[in-house]
Design brief:
binds S-adenosylmethionine, alpha/beta, binds iron/sulfur cluster, 42% helix
């Protein structure tokens, strides 16, 4: 508790008084490849003509290994690994080994299509080199999951991968379901289902209607998958509340409580000029802290302010640390002044985190939310 308070106080000082220069990020997000063996309907990568071909020159193994050393030197201890599908990169195990050697915790996001088919040795290697593995699971109905993710038999393989990892004693296996018009009513059922497999954490994420890869055009198929009409959004909220109840009943950790305060506003206003945070009861001042706290690097080595804004540099051209500290200053300054980007109106990127930080960093403006959020944190 004291540590968390000290961290927040340090961040408060840097955020308000350091003119956009931040000492170091807490987490590095790396989309290690633009290749993928799925064709998800709501994802730009899945909509490429040839999903298995890279969209451009990808980071070399050598540069990736160097990046791991740079991270360790800079003191970044958490790497969130995504893509594309990280498991299709032929050098993935070499990369994971390097992370372990440098003491970096890896949280791996995967579609789970290949893990059940790994040899015993590879599976053990994956267990030893990752601290968390998250598998995407979009429905408890096999045909629905397969349709959303564009792979016949994908549900069976994802579930087999979850079971394989649970049985092999992986320390932290989780799932992620993207909430769409097709599956919002399955939230409580999904919790019971993954609890039955032995999953530790069930994440539920809202769908971004804009491109989640800033150098790619948004997939046209996704807009229609965002639940928007009032009645559906009301029911979706009911599904979340029921999910929170079921999670308590079966003893399952989920992300639902962190979505609850803003999920209705998000669905009703995402993409409009009326920024959805203004419709969150009791939240008067909102800030985005992602470019202050995280480094996001895409498959081509671009350094991004967040998952939605265009690159500010490339690690092939300059060292990571200086680029992150300096090139992001104008973005940070703009956000600090509350001058949001067009993309921000459709952004759910780490919204639970932004929501909590907004409440704590602008306490006088968000007093009502401060009381309820602080109570939630003390309880958890
Ligand atoms: C981009 S994927 C990369 C890792 C891996 N290929 C996978 O699917 O799990 C990471 C997560 O983002 C989710 N995702 C993809 N498109 C999304 C969107 N438009 N909005 C929200 N989440 C999305 C995926 O379902 C997945 O759980
Ligand atoms: S969500 Fe993951 S599995 Fe699906 S297309 Fe995108 S990168 Fe591939
Ligand atoms: S709120 Fe804006 S700056 Fe922040 S993560 Fe979202 S799109 Fe990026």
């Amino acid at each position: 508790m004291l540590k968390a308070f000290a961290r927040l106080a340090g961040f408060y000082r840097d955020y308000h008084f350091n003119g956009g220069t931040m000492p170091s990020p807490s987490t590095l997000y790396l989309n290690i490849t633009s290749r993928c063996n799925s064709r998800c309907v709501y994802c730009e990568i899945g909509r490429k003509t040839d999903t298995l071909a890279p969209s451009g020159p990808e980071l070399s193994t050598e540069r990736l290994l160097q990046l791991v050393a740079e991270m360790a030197e800079w003191g970044i201890r958490l790497l969130v690994l995504g893509g594309g599908e990280p498991m299709v990169r032929p050098d993935i195990f070499e990369f994971l080994d390097a992370c372990r050697q440098h003491g970096i915790n890896v949280s791996l996001a995967t579609n789970g299509l290949t893990i059940a088919r790994l040899s015993h040795d590879r599976l053990e290697q994956l267990k030893a080199t990752t601290s968390n593995v998250q598998v995407s699971l979009d429905s408890v109905a096999p045909e629905k999951h397969d349709a959303l993710r564009g792979v016949p038999g994908g549900f069976r393989q994802a579930v087999a991968s979850l079971e394989t990892m649970v049985n092999a004693g992986f320390p932290d296996v989780s799932t992620n379901m993207v909430i769409t018009t097709d599956n919002w009513d399955e939230i409580p059922e999904m919790i019971r289902f993954v609890k039955g497999i032995g999953v530790r954490f069930a994440r539920f994420a809202v769908m971004a209607p804009i491109s989640i890869f800033p150098t790619m055009k948004a997939a046209e198929s996704k807009e229609a998958l965002l639940p928007k009409d009032k009645e559906t959004v009301r029911k979706l909220y009911g599904s979340i509340i029921e999910g929170i109840r079921v999670a308590k009943e079966v003893g399952m950790a989920t992300s639902l409580e962190s979505l609850e305060p803003w999920v209705q506003a998000y669905h009703l206003y995402a993409g409009s000029d009326d920024f959805f945070f203004r419709h969150i009861d009791g939240l008067k001042r909102f800030g985005c802290f992602i470019p202050f706290r995280e480094v996001i690097i895409d498959y081509e080595g671009n350094i991004l302010p967040c998952s939605y804004l265009p690159p500010v540099g490339n690690i092939a051209e300059a060292p990571l640390k200086e680029t992150w500290q300096e090139s992001l200053r104008p973005v940070r300054e703009r956000l600090r002044q509350g001058r949001f980007y067009r993309e921000c109106a459709s952004c759910s990127c780490h919204f639970p985190y932004n929501y909590d930080y907004s409440v704590f960093l602008f306490p006088a403006r968000n007093i009502r939310r401060l009381i309820s959020t602080a109570a939630k944190h003390v309880r958890s």
